[in-house]
Amino acid sequence: MPKAFMTRGLSIAALAAAVVLASCSTKTETAVAPPPPPPPPPVTLNQSVADAAAVYVAYLRQAQTISPGGFADAESIQADLRKGASYEPLELSRGLIAYGSIIALQSPEFVAGVRQFAVDPTQRQQMVARIVADPAYAATLPGADAAAGLIASTINKDAVAMRAIADAVEQDAYTVQGRTDPRRRWAITPIPHREVRLESAKTLSAVDMLPSPEESARLLAAANTGAGLQVEPSRKAPPYTPAMVRSLAIAALAALGAAGDEAKANTDALVSEPNSEFCLNLSKLMLFQCLAASRPSYEDMFCLGRHVARDLSSCATQAVFAPIITVGDPTETGTPVATPVAAASTSASTAVRTPAPTGG
């Protein structure tokens, strides 16, 4: 075979082999796709928030056992006073906001609306940073009105129950003074050791409120699964109170997977809200003043109804409902218009100045 022919044949074979190899290389490169982005982190809330909520729920259940059906003796009044006084205002306020965040996480619409921003890692981090910098931003996210509605309806249901207890206890403070009421004898008798029972109320108010492990676990599971709480679907449009805003912000962070143990500093800051804390602190101070001025048992009944049951209802309502501004009669010149908290304190202080009158 001629040498030139062999050389040309080898060259053609080499070229064909090179084309095949190049084709294989190209196919290999196009077959390898980039890895998919990691899935967004799951809904996560830390134990600290669940513990705070458990404190609020446990105290509320305890307060709702205050007798609305009439007291049988003086000691039963003191027992309910001890029960009602055993909360630390700041802890109870933090618990209310924490509980609100767990209620918000029961809204599939809100959780889904927030989690759409968790798919892209960069966008997720931007959302987290924005909520931490401005908690009110969470109230503008999709489904916020559905979550706010759940918070408002649930908290209000408990507030209505406490208000009914307040009405019954305060009314009984008058009923028990009637001449035909068989309880009148002990009801109008001066309370012995009045200073002791006042100091007892102050001591109970300063004791740390410890969460029930079982209640905390139940609430944590409800937060992370979005199920487990008895809630009634509802919607609430803005404006939202500062406490409501913080509840929504914690829930939004949890929906973004950014409220776990590593974010405890953020959630601890968000459960603190000055207006709610002030309302409960003022209520407790009014309770102390009322007990200091009270002498017979029927007056202690009035203190219990007004500054435990009614004030708890009022503070919870103020925490989740923005004040409704109405146009009424003009006030006198120089008379300030009361804020919601100031109005509550004015109502509370009235009970201290004018305790339930003695029956004829």
Tell me about this structure.
The protein is mainly α and 360 residues long. The chain has one domain (47-322, 338-353). The chain contains 15 helices and no strands. Helix 4 packs across helix 11 (242-255).
Short overview:
With 360 residues, this protein is mostly helical. 66% of the residues lie in helices and 0% in strands.
Structural class: mainly alpha
Total helical segments: 15
Gyration radius from CA atoms, angstroms: 31 Å
Determine the strand fraction and express it as a percent band. Answer: under 5%
Average predicted local confidence, pLDDT: 86
The major β-sheet equals: none
Q: How widely separated are the two ends? A: 140 Å
Helix-strand topology string: HHHHHHHHHHHHHHH
Got a strand count?
0
Number of domains: 1
Helix percent band: 55-70%
- Give the oligomeric state of the chains in this entry, treating copies of one chain as homo and distinct chains as hetero: single chain
Which regions have little confidence, pLDDT < 50, spanning 5+ residues?
325-360
The outline comes out as elongated
